[in-house]
Amino acid sequence: MKKILLIVSLLISSLAVSAQNTSQSYIEKFKENAIRIMHESGVPASIVLAVAMHESACGNSNIAQKLNNQFGVKGSSTSVYYKHKKKVHTSYKKYESVMDSFQDFARIVTERKQFSHLTEEFSHYDYIGWAKGIQHSGYCSSHKWATQVLDIIRKYQLNLYDENPVDQSQLAANPQ
């Protein structure tokens, strides 16, 4: 009987873990969105992905799941979501989709006055400059933020998405 209970509890816990996003599944799910944002805005895809992964715990945070807010962006009005059947009022911005959240992040770091100099200073290949520039421009209060974002980029080699504007499948089909 104890063995059966142990097996059942292991199965249940493994199902709960598999329901959560992992870093790799998050990257696979949103890398194309990040690349599209890079081409539209000049913000490196690696920065978009790494900041989203860092701020949303790979899409597992409450605001990422309930509000599609991957970056912890606050809004001018109150959003409401439910957590454990309780109504939660929050100042975090609600988005219709994750892509909308990605686009808003790119807009913030390219159009807001405090960040607008970044597009002039850094190319979409300079993820290190972008991470440090975003931190120094006041995006976060942590002094370790840029280092944490850069660690994510390096660990998962997200900078590879910055360096190849050509579709990866085209390269595989037509090696030069």
Given helix and strand content, the structural type is mainly alpha
User: Strand percentage, roughly?
Assistant: 5-15%
Fraction of residues in H or I helices = 55-70%
Report the average pLDDT across residues. Answer: 86
What is the CA-based Rg, rounded?
Answer: 19 Å
Number of strands: 2
Largest sheet: 2 strands, antiparallel
Number of domains: 1
* Gross CATH architecture: Orthogonal Bundle
How far apart, in Å, are the first and last alpha carbons?
62 Å
Task: Report the uncertain regions.
Answer: 13-18, 165-176
CATH topology: Lysozyme
User: Number of DSSP helices?
Assistant: 10
Secondary-structure blueprint:
Layout: H1 2-19, H2 23-41, H3 45-56, H4 62-67, E1 74-83, E2 86-92, H5 98-111, H6 118-121, H7 127-136, H8 145-156, H9 160-163, H10 168-173
Antiparallel strand pairs: 1-2
3D structure, described in words:
- This protein is mainly alpha-helical and 176 residues long.
- The model is unreliable at 13-18 and 165-176 (pLDDT under 50).
- Strands 1-2 form a two-stranded antiparallel ribbon.
- The chain has ten helices and two strands, in the order ααααββαααααα.
- Helix 2 (23-41) crosses helix 3, helix 2 (23-41) packs across helix 5 and helix 7 packs antiparallel against helix 8 (145-156).
- The relative contact order is 0.14.
- Helices cover 60% and strands 10% of the residues.
- It has one domain (22-164): Lysozyme, CATH 1.10.530.
What are the salient characteristics of this protein?
176 residues, mainly alpha, Lysozyme, two-stranded antiparallel ribbon, 10 helices, disordered C terminus
